[in-house]
Amino acid sequence: MSTFFLFCAIVGGTILALQLLLTLLGVGGDLGGEGLDLDLPDLPDGDTGEPTVGHDAGGFSDLAKRITFQGVVSFITFFGVGGLAAQGSGVSSVGSLVAAVVVGTLATAVLAFAFAGVRKLQGSGSLSMSNAVGSIGRVYLTVPGGNGGVGKVFVTVQGRSEEVRAVTPGPELRPGEAVVVVHAIDDRTLEVVSQSAYVAKTASLAD
Where are the alpha helices (DSSP H) in 26-143? Predict the structure, then answer.
């Protein structure tokens, strides 16, 4: 059990330290992220058997998508540290597991606030989302169609790659799809459309 705890602490700690360093350097935008795109299907809605579409919160699918890479790494790191500390104090194997889970959970919550503070400091200043209009980006989290919900896209703003909220009036945009920013709704949200649809519309207007 000690070997397992040690492995978690070393591997998780190494990744966490690297992640923090890259975040402070501003490399690759927001490495903490807000959620891993697990691309889970929407759950049935009540007795109708119809899938729910465009829900911004609620349900197992939404909860899963909010699991962040930074959170997982933080938990693994301090799960190992907590387990080692408990075993060093002579606690039983079961007690060590409980202590490891508790320490990992608490440390993950604390670090989530810390990373959020770092990202807020990075995002403050002269960064203006209006400067992203016309830029090409990539979908990170599915953007529901018909302004039915909020997704995420990676887009370059003032020379920096940023992960920002996005909505679209057109069809649903899937992860990896190229998009064009057509409007900055506010300092956190962009309106985007599929690059192929944008190019087609531009070509038709030019004829």
Answer: 59-65, 69-88, 93-123
